[in-house]
Amino acid sequence: MILALQAIGSAVLTSAFLWPLTGLHAAELTGRVVSIADGDTLTVLVEGRQQYKIRLAGIDAPERRQAFGERARQHLSELAFGQTVQVEWNKADRYGRVIGKVRVSGRDVNLDMVGAGMAWHYKAYATEQSPRDQNTYGAAESAARRAKRGLWRDADPLAPWEFRRLR
């Protein structure tokens, strides 16, 4: 059963109810992208003027102050800013962001970020992806590495989780 996020209401997403929703059926929301925070986080405005911060599931993009961080943000903006998106999700993170797969006209934006070499396939959370997405995202990262696209142009790119750990 797919729930309409709008029907859940803002009280749900702004309350302590934001624990991980793993195990529940996926919910879906539709809205317009109104801002891009970085290469893996955007804000969606849904009907009723509700805004939801979305963390792209299955990927981790460079931090903004990191090599390729601003380029990753720009690429996500090119793919999604101002566009109507569908977000499939079943969990929120500790910061209150919805963790989801973002689609523009049916295209998987998360996968596009990995394939363009603008993000890593975030293997630490791969078990939260379908087996198909695990394989597809992994293959997209491998292809981007081989082709030296985006951040893979660097001889030894620093993964964002390592960048955050070192800070």
Automatic annotation (TrEMBL):
It comes from the Bacteria. Residues 27-154 form the TNase-like domain. It holds the Pfam family SNase. This is TNase-like domain-containing protein. It comes from Noviherbaspirillum aridicola. The lineage of its organism: Bacteria, Pseudomonadati, Pseudomonadota, Betaproteobacteria, Burkholderiales.
